[in-house]
Amino acid sequence: MELTPQRMDHARKNFNILIAMLEQRKLKYSIEENRQDFSHVRIRFTGEDLPMDLHLLFRPERQMVSLYSPMPFTVPAGRSADMAVAVAAANHGLADGSFDFDHKEGALRFRMTAPFMETTLSADLFEYLLYVAADTIDRYNDRFLALSEGKMTLMDFLHADEQRTAQSKKESDTMEKQSCENI
Question: Taking a C-beta distance cutoff of 8 angstroms, is the pair 119, 10 a contact?
Answer without folding.
Answer: yes
